[in-house]
């Protein structure tokens, strides 16, 4: 029966043929509802058919491409996953972005995750944590015939904001690595054993100038608060800190002399 609002098809074919079907003039199934199993069918198995869902915006929408076996998003279309309250959201965008919004947790439980990017992988977050069981390692591998193409761990620091970066100042840290050991007497179980970081140790000019010292800090026995034990200054001198807080300086002269 047909009305202004809908088309109604009743009855089941005793031969289990489609209860409702739309065919091409050549007889190929375009769309149908099977009688034996209440499943909506598009196309024919091993033949396929494209499915296009149009958006209110021109050329936007969702496309299943049968020739590529791919479900794709067109132009700026987004595929959205969210909780019933709408507070946690994940967007998959047609421009190749996966957006995980604030308050959302993205759990990846696969034993191996391969990210094949031709240029760069950018993680823009205030805090990123990598946790692994057994013997864990973060490996950076480079494959290139040119000697200058090497694996690198890069730290970048600026004053100001991301949109308007500023020149770093004397005494500002450019990056820090910390080492923790597990100790069950603490709140979170881990205590700081040592650190290493790079610190600007003079005024910085606008161009071609970044005087930096290397700083090493270690926690003494009976403490979990590292104190600075060694500075390798931008001038080339080593500054060692004794247990009583006094310092000793080791300098290498231009003629090869060692001064303590």
How do the helices and strands line up, and which of them pair or pack?
Layout: E1 18-23, E2 29-34, E3 40-42, E4 51-54, E5 61-65, E6 70-74, E7 78-82, E8 89-93, E9 98-100, E10 159-160, E11 165-166, E12 173-182, E13 190-200, E14 212-218, E15 227-232, E16 238-241, E17 247-252, E18 258-259
Antiparallel strand pairs: 1-2, 2-3, 4-5, 5-6, 7-8, 8-9, 10-11, 12-13, 13-14, 14-15, 15-16, 16-17, 17-18
Short description:
The protein has 260 residues and is an all-beta fold. Helices cover 0% and strands 35% of the residues.
| Count of individual helical segments | 0
- Give the DSSP E fraction (strand runs of 2 or more residues): 35-45%
Largest sheet: 7 strands, antiparallel
Poorly predicted tracts of residues: none
Order of helices and strands: EEEEEEEEEEEEEEEEEE
The average pLDDT is 76
Q: Tell me how many strands there are.
A: 18
Shape: elongated
Strand order of the largest sheet: 12-13-14-15-16-17-18
How far apart are the termini?
101 Å
**Which bin fits the share of residues in helices?**
under 10%
Oligomeric state of shown chains: single chain
The class by helix and strand makeup works out as mainly beta
**Cα-based radius of gyration, to the nearest Å:** 32 Å
